[in-house]
Amino acid sequence: MPPLQFIRQRPFAVLAVVFVLWLLVPVAAKRFMQVSLFEFGAPAEFAASYARDLQQYWSLRTRSTNELLQTARDLANLNASYEVRIRENETLREQVQRLEDVLHLPSNIEYRTEIARVVRRDFGTWSQRLIIRKGRNNGGPNGGIPVGAPVIFTGGVVGRVTEVYAFSSVVDLVSSPTLRVAAMVEGDSRPFSFQGGPNPPFTQARGSVEFVPLDIYVSPATPKRIVTAGLGGVFPPGLVLGYIQELELDTNGLFKSGTVLLDPRLNEIHEVAVLVSLNPEQQ
Prior knowledge:
The chain has helices spanning about 5-25, 25-60, 65-105; strands at about 110-125, 130, 150-155, 155-165, 170-175, 180-185, 190-195, 205-210, 225-230, 240-250, 255-260, 270-275. By secondary structure, the protein is α+β, with helices and mostly antiparallel strands.
């Protein structure tokens, strides 16, 4: 082989050797290297996250007195509305408890809420995920974040925890193709399948639904909101997933399938709530 041609092909040969060696490495060693690299890079990402919070704090300090007063009034109105919602929620909980006692029904799964800040977003075409600032060493005496815990925000479902580290966790977003959940149209008890889909950057997140009953009709003018069905033991029932705007018949003609528009705030979310089950077996 001529020397010049050997020099040109040498990088490919080295790459092939590295690839073969990587395939021969045990799975446990690969997992250890992945965790080590993640934990090694976590402090730098956490420092950048805290720096952004500090920058936001000082930017708020520069606001005028009138702006602060207006914000305080808005917060007071918002707190008043939340207090009314809390009282209504407590009344509904008491009614549900009485019905469970009368009908001898099992109680719903209870959760505690862990609020976490978002450290980083990874939005690719085939996967969308968040890195949050809480892990297995957070949560106090009740324990840290478990794998598989549902994650929500004010707009509904954010995703599900898929990886947990010492002080951080990875959340697969509801828009990711790796997340599939049983859903239903709000007000309808018949479940069907929801799954995230490939989402190009700088577009509103979307998902897809399958096995939708034939008598459900939607249009862009009259979309229908879908919520979690509560099947599978991961997501509680009634959490908002998105809106169906179009449906079409499947190839077999027995069900419908379509596209779901997700909350646009998923692309700019800064804080989430992780639902940790209080039932050890469920967790």
